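Researcher: Sequence recovery benchmark, item below. Answer with residues only.
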């Protein structure tokens, strides 16, 4: 199943080739002037640092400068994302096993809030922070309803009883809101993930992607589709980066 999903990602995320280095924990990408600078990946890294794993991504322009324009409603609203697809099993962070591609993402979306446990802007209302950059774990799968060879965040069927992370925000999709604060400095973002939160024993592979997603106009299955890919660190989503 994992190989099939990787093949799907290769088709869905087709883009001009980038070069990558072979340094463990790091992928260097060639610049692409056709991609907006805030989404043009220069390098992505995932490295163990003491009790944490640091997921970092560097772009040609100002990191996080561009956010979606408000839509005024949930249906059809946009989500901008910086993504670290991994070879980790979906069970590594508390989902059911074997459900798709597990990815860490940094997202922003002004029309809804999906981190109900946290008040990111500290205004006393935890339900109005979607436009601030924040982190999620998501599980990606193929769904032709999103377009030919397109991907979505996996939906949860109505009434299904599944294993879900403790910080699942209650949305009917495979998404977790762990509360890791993205650290944005200039052209780089870093998300520090506690080692204890990831159930991996030896190693895993990763890549880096910048992408846009959109809430389905019917706000139904599929709920959240990948609609545009700006850049891929490896050029072909081969997940050449390795953490061990």
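Model:
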């Amino acid at each position: 199943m994992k190989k099939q999903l990787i093949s799907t990602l290769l088709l869905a995320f087709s883009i001009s080739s980038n070069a990558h280095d072979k340094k463990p924990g790091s992928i260097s990408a060639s610049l692409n002037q056709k991609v907006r600078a805030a989404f043009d990946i220069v390098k992505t890294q995932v490295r163990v640092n003491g009790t944490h794993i640091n997921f970092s991504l560097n772009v040609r322009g100002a990191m996080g400068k561009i956010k979606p324009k408000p839509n005024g409603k949930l249906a059809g609203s946009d989500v901008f994302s910086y993504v670290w697809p991994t070879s980790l099993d979906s069970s590594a962070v508390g989902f059911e096993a074997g459900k798709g591609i597990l990815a860490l993402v940094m997202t922003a979306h002004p029309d809804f809030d999906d981190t109900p446990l946290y008040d990111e802007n500290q205004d006393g209302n935890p339900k109005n922070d979607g436009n601030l950059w924040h982190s999620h774990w998501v599980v990606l799968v193929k769904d032709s309803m999103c377009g030919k060879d397109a991907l979505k965040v996996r939906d949860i069927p109505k009434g299904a009883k599944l294993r879900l992370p403790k910080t699942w925000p209650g949305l009917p999709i495979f998404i977790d809101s762990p509360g890791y604060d993205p650290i944005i400095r200039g052209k780089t973002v870093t998300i520090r993930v506690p080692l204890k939160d990831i159930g991996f024993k030896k190693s895993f592979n990763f890549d880096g992607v910048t992408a846009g997603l959109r809430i389905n106009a019917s706000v139904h299955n599929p709920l959240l589709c990948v609609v545009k890919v700006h850049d891929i660190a490896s050029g072909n989503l081969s997940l050449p980066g390795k953490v061990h």
